[in-house]
Design brief:
Blueprint: H1 3-23, E1 34-38, H2 43-46, H3 54-71, H4 77-80, E2 89-97, E3 101-106, E4 118-124, E5 131-135, E6 143-145, E7 160-167, E8 170-177
Antiparallel strand pairs: 1-2, 2-5, 3-4, 3-7, 4-6, 7-8
């Protein structure tokens, strides 16, 4: 082969490599698949207080406060009122991931012309525990709030939010809409 053929072959290889890198997903990691689930829990199931004796509930609450003081993660969102008026939101992932950042923002800015409001933002402290699911407002092990002064905001009914996750070089995002809690209907008849 002469020099001209080698140059043409080299150009073809470089163009093929550029095409593979910029126009295909062969070298990119698959995105994290996320399923947002708004858990419509009945009044009986949402408050397990009817089944758990009062002493056990108080002990569990004290234990949660001690644990939150040690680990820095706060109590569950249902205990802090983050789900006042809306059903809890659970995010199921397609596998186990060591998350490095979690962010929930409004999908559409509530004030036109302004940036979307960030309602929850976490970063990894060092090496987060592998997780397959998240509950809005509950900090997974190995993660912490980006700013301790900004606790997870209360979700508003009917508002569309976007969850953005990152686990190393893997990323994923999904949108979800909250639902207002509907009080149970009173039984018909009887006094």
């Amino acid at each position: 082969m002469n020099t001209k053929n080698w140059i043409l072959l080299g150009v073809a290889v470089v163009l093929g490599a550029c095409y593979a890198v910029f126009n295909t997903e062969w070298l990119r990691p698959d995105p994290i698949q996320i399923q947002a689930q708004v858990r419509e829990i009945s009044g009986r199931a949402s408050l397990e207080s009817r089944r758990v004796p009062r002493e056990a509930r108080e002990a569990r609450k004290r234990d949660g406060q001690k644990r939150s003081a040690r680990t820095g993660s706060g109590p569950a969102p249902t205990e802090t009122g983050k789900f006042d008026g809306v059903y809890p939101v659970v995010f199921a992932l397609d596998g186990e991931y060591r998350l490095t950042s979690v962010r929930v923002i409004e999908d559409q800015p509530s004030v036109p012309g302004h940036a979307p409001l960030i309602v929850w933002q976490l970063n990894s402290t060092s090496n987060s525990a592998p997780t397959k699911a998240l509950l809005y407002g509950k900090t997974p092990r190995g993660m912490k709030l980006k700013d301790e002064r900004n606790q997870p905001a209360r979700l508003l009914p009917g508002t569309v939010y976007r969850l953005e996750l990152q686990a190393g070089r893997y990323q994923g995002k999904t949108t979800f809409q909250t639902k207002e809690i509907v009080p149970p209907e009173a039984p018909a008849g009887g006094s």
